[in-house]
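Issue 218. Parser rejects a valid record. Input:
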Amino acid sequence: MILYVHIPFCHRICPYCSFYKHTPGDTDLRAFIQAIHKEAACWSALPSDTAIDTLYLGGGTPSMLSPGHLRELFDGLHKTLPLENTHITLEANPATFGTNKAALFKEMGVNRTSLGIQSFNDHVLKTLGREHNPEQAAEAVQLLRESGMEEINIDLMFSIPGQSDADWQHSLDRAVSLKPDHISAYNLTYEEDTEFIDRLTKGDYKQSEDTNAVQFQQAHDTLTAAGFHHYETSNYAQPGMESRHNQGYWHGVDYLGLGPSAVSTIGDRRWRNLPDTAGYIHAVNTVGHAKREEEIIDEEAYRIERIALLLRTTEGLPECYLEDCPEGAVDELLGNQLAEMNNDKLRLINQGILLVDAIAEKLV
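Output the parser choked on:
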């Protein structure tokens, strides 16, 4: 099993982000943390042989919590859940921590810090509404290294409005120079209920498949030349530094989500927590959980998810998930050299890597 904890607080709301988040406002942060602990306690009666392989704290901006709140959060989770051998990732914004807090991350058992840097260009960061600058981003990596952090990931984003190919190359080169263990290079997507989708609809912003393809190839060429293994469409890792938590999602292991809006899937049951922090705290204090929108994931839904997720990996999609595909769909991919069969797994190659979402739709 893997565990996710959602911390929805941000100092500033980025105009491209569709995750449930908000500024702290008048939220009682201690009451929020206590609610996380109470929800965790609701699920602590899982079978005794259920190990929690990974814990991922995302948001929002988990690193913006004060040292006192971070200690309280982690102490309560460790008391409630079996986290002795759990690999822990914490998302962090470079503007929200310094030397002491970086050391605290390590002290609390965090093995991996994922830095939401996105760009090393000032004007691109301004477009994205980020509160850090390129110098703070580079310093954050150094602070984490000095703290003894075992693994560091840098998140980058391309196809951003106003971002040239040269801007993107600069960000890639700067990220590589900092020698992180992992780099995620995400193609910007325009999500519902964001300022970016509104500006796209109005015509202020444009989408370009050509830009997507060119900048994807820039990332692939630069990062693989620097020794990173391209193991998933948007993810590159030094040998042995792949994201264990994300691999759990891709392979369909059970996952438990704590916090407002967090999603859980255990066995064939999936549910989402109430996406409202005040309502979440009240629900947990009243009934011990904030479950909403529960559904059953049948075999076909599970198969479709594995196709969509495993096709994105260089490991490939096991042949067993192809049995019910439309007739001729796989042969067409092979014939057009968009995919190959290797060790009974379908792997996308060449232009197929760029067309992963369209190909997944054809296979279901």
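Fixed in the parser; the record now loads. The mean pLDDT is 96.
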